[in-house]
Predict the structure.
Amino acid sequence: MTKLINTAFLTGTLFLRNSLTWLGGRIFADYATDLGSGDTVTGEPGEVRDKPGSGLGYGVGVRVRSPFGPVQVDFGLNDQGDSQVHLGVGERF
């Protein structure tokens, strides 16, 4: 018998960015929820990976315009106490 999948989710991002001539910064917040549909996905991957059905992340970032292109460093935290540093070069498309 085939199990039907009923999935729904909602995501949102809010950020504030400010730039000077060669240096810029930003603050950001992200929120996502599976609207309670995580248990309906075959194999229950959220449960297997010990992920909650919703979460909040927030942080700060710095941007520098270099001769090689923009260099970005972000530091983020989530509502479970985890943190991450992200380093990037260039712009997202």
Summary: The mean pLDDT is 83. The helical segments are 45-48. The longest helix spans residues 45-48.
